[in-house]
Write a structure and sequence with these properties.
Distance between the termini: 55 Å
Helix content: 40-55%
Number of domains: 2
CATH superfamily of the largest domain: 2-enoyl-CoA Hydratase, Chain A, domain 1
Shape: globular
CATH architecture of the largest domain: Alpha-Beta Complex
Number of strands: 8
């Protein structure tokens, strides 16, 4: 029997059962020549209805699971579909090439841009290759090198954020992980070109902020963005992994929470059932949003872009301080 291409999450059990019935009926139709199009159509409509109902009221923890879904489109998918003539640029010119960060030059809607993406990988082999999207100091130095290039040639920067956080290993700490992240954030603030960052899955900790200190921050509807992972928060505050759901509530990490708090600028609606079910459609929606924001920024001078970006984050801090 044919199997569904999308991995179903635990809370999608009812939908999974309907999808399995559809696949089973397709096999019957193909194997016995029985016309059951009407029943398949009815089940598809039921599946669509259940998905709409379920995804309209996801809890923060469920959104976290969706954001981490292995079938969600990754940075390489966005680059392949949205960026023409992409030329990957490797290395930090100091230590090594960190494959958790993919970056280079390409054309977006006919305009030359610098692209930066945090890449998790889509299977065991590529996840190991890209270190599960967790960059080391050389990765953040690569980001800074790409931003230097953007400033030098007056090219807009587009960043795709998808990481659980910076790599926490001993070797990364020995090579100055915290300093590398801080320098990367500082470099973001000094950019004199339009900078749009898109959180496409997980935006975890300083590892995400290092490439999301942008003029415009966009989040996919079911992505997350937080100062620490829910698991890390639960282990620190409650010293128990059982409190992870409480941690997701406390962190206000959903796109809807962050838009309300003024941390992000736009939420891009995902297709019914999440970006993992309609990958190409989700990527196209992100492309339209990025194009619109770049259009709004293109007439601002370099000094104005830098000043407004800095003021954006200062204002964000003041607002959050007052809200407490």
């Amino acid at each position: 029997m044919e199997k569904s291409n999308t991995v179903n999450l635990d809370f999608e059990k009812t939908i999974a059962e309907v999808e399995e019935k559809i696949l089973h009926l397709k096999d019957i139709e193909l194997g016995e020549g029985v016309n059951i199009d009407g029943e398949i159509t009815r089940l598809r409509q039921k599946s669509e209805r259940l998905l709409k109902q379920l995804y309209s009221k996801l809890t923060p923890w469920q959104k976290t699971l969706v954001a981490r879904h292995p079938d969600r489109p990754h940075s390489v998918d966005y680059i392949n579909l949205l960026i023409e003539d992409f030329e990957n640029l490797s290395g930090d010119r100091c230590f090594a090439d960190d494959l958790a960060i993919i970056g280079g030059l390409g054309k977006f809607n006919g305009r030359s841009v610098v692209v930066i993406g945090q890449e998790k990988g889509h299977d065991l082999e590529t996840r190991v290759k890209h270190n599960f999207g967790m960059a080391k100091p050389e990765g953040y130095r690569k980001v800074q090198r790409l931003m230097d290039l953007a400033d030098k040639f007056n090219l807009p920067v587009i960043a795709f954020v998808d990481t659980s956080g910076a790599f926490p290993g001993v070797e990364a700490e020995e090579r100055g992980q915290a300093q590398a992240i801080a320098s990367c954030i500082e470099r973001c603030l000094k950019l004199k070109v339009p900078f749009v960052s898109v959180i496409i899955g997980e935006g975890g900790s300083g590892g995400a902020i290092a490439v999301a200190t942008a003029n415009r921050i966009i989040m996919l509807e079911h992505s997350i963005y937080s100062v620490i992972s829910p698991e890390g928060c639960a282990s620190i505050l409650w010293r128990s992994a059982d409190k992870v759901k409480e941690a997701t509530e406390a962190l206000c990490l959903t796109a809807q929470d962050l838009r309300r708090l003024g941390v992000i600028d736009e939420i891009v609606a995902e297709p019914t059932g999440g970006a993992q079910r309609h990958r190409e459609e989700a990527i196209k929606r992100v492309g339209l949003a990025v194009a619109r924001h770049l259009k709004e920024l293109e007439n601002q001078s370099g000094d104005e872009l830098k000043r407004r970006r800095t003021e954006k984050f200062l204002k964000m801090g003041r607002h959050l301080a007052k809200s407490k």
